[in-house]
Structures are given as structure tokens and as C-alpha cells.
Amino acid sequence: MLLNLPCHKLKIGMVTRCNSMLDMLDRFLEQQPSITATLLSPEIRRSEKDLCTLAGAEIMETEDIVKALPPMKAATLALSGESSATLSVIAPLHAQLLEEMRQTTSDSAVIKELKSAVHNNLRFRYANLKEKLHVASALDLCFKTLPFISDKD
Question: Which of 50, 59, 122, 143 has the fewest Cβ atoms within 10 angstroms?
Fold first, then answer.
């Protein structure tokens, strides 16, 4: 408890779990002071010849990634948490993600690049399904108004 950090184990990202990489990076950032202190300790440096640490810029980029991706995690959890997710929730969730992935002037270069890639992927991926998704949402009683659909659509 020397660094006043929570006593948490590091997490491992798994390709089959959508949010595991984000969770892994978040936990790394939480524990980064203790990781750095451990790698710089004389006991470790004497016994290990090839230590690799991250530069400050790489840690800042990791912080940016962790800062930008919570909307994607929330969407994943919303869909996977429902016992029977329906087609009708995709359009509002898609619209919300597109809005949250818009770049702002205060975003760093890394966040802008990440948001742009996600935004473009989402726009392209669902372009041909837009009308069907809107109809599914319109038919669902949970969506009495359709604020995510423009007047034109």
C-alpha cells in the first residue's frame, strides 16, 4: 500500500471478449505507478537485462484510448445484458454511438483518430440497414418517439 493504489491484479485482454482490451488498459493505467516502481527497483534491474517500459507519450495515448471508448463498452454491455436483445434497439444505440464518436475541438489527436475510425465504420456498416432498423424501432412500443431519426428520414 506504499503508493495508495487499490490491490488489483492486472487483467489480460481476450479476443473473444469485446471489452476485455479496454478493461486491460484501464487496469494497467490504474496500476501503472506500481508497475513502473517495480521495474525500476534495483532487485528487478539486477536480475533482468532486457526490461521494457512505456514512454510518457505511450502512456498518454493509452489514457486517451481509455477515455474515448466507454461509449462502445456501454453499447456492448447494453446489448449483451439483455436476455433477448431485439432489432429495435440497434437504431437508437447506433445513433447514440455516432453522436458520441463525433470529434470535439478538445480531443487529442489520438482521440480524434479513434473517434473518426469508429464513426466511419459505424456509418458504413449500417448504411444499407438504416431503413429496416428505423422500422423495427418504430414498431417497438418502447420507442414512442423516435428522437434519433431525422425529420428527413
Answer: 50
Whether the CB-CB separation of 78 and 89 falls below 8 Å is answered with yes
Residue type, position 57, single letter: A
Contact 39, 53 (CB under 8 A): yes
Which of 13, 6, 50 has its CA nearest to residue 32? 6
Residue type at 111 in one-letter notation? I
Residue matched to cell numbers 493504489: 5
Q: Please name which of 97, 98, 107 lies closest in space to residue 77, comparing C-alpha atoms.
A: 97
Residue-wise pLDDT for 24-75, tens only, equals 999 999 999 888 888 777 777 777 777 677 788 999 999 999 999 999 999 9
3-state class of 99 per DSSP? Answer: helix
Domain boundaries defined on the chain: 20-53, 68-139
